[in-house]
Design brief:
Layout (H helix, E strand, L loop, with lengths): L1 H5 L5 E14 L2 E13 L4 E7 L17 H9 L3 E9 L4 E7 L24 H21 L9 H5 L16 H5 L11
Parallel strand pairs: 3-4
Antiparallel strand pairs: 1-2, 2-3, 4-5
Helix pairs in contact: 2-3
Amino acid sequence: LLGEEKKRLAPFRVRDRELKTEITHGGITAKVKVDRIDELENGSLVLLDYKSGKPMVGRWNGERPDSPQLPIYASKLRTQLAAVAFVQLNREKIQFKGYSKSDNILPGVKRYDALTEKQRPAPTFDELLSNWNTNLEKLGAEFRRGVSDVDPKTRVTCDQCHLHMLCRINEAPLAPDEEAATQGPPLRPRP
């Protein structure tokens, strides 16, 4: 990791380690512990989260993110952020994986607007952060209201569920495109 840190071109200082704070979305407050926040010379911040597995940046995105931890943390620092990234630390790889507002903030992390359209869930870095916040606000508000509709994101969710006897999601006929797909299509309850 120190070798990767030495590759960083933008001067920085570690501002916070294991920062305990509270973050509220949609009326739901969570106590969190942010692994690390670095501060660049211009005062902008880099949000880092250590992972020993194989973290996937794409799991931060969508209306119901699979891995909302960093988007939740990012919402508190949104206007100050220059980058959001995992620090992958395992035997196979030590690297930064994430999104950054400009070049040369973290080694291996491209400037967000230099990514292909397919790699970008939003047109700009600031819009990405805004979308994360909007989605988290909506999810928090739904949770607070007690919304608990049967609405699995993908077929894999149903495959791993142990409540088949209580669920009627599979009674609904599949749309032709869902029937043709083997894994991952969104499922929606049918009336």
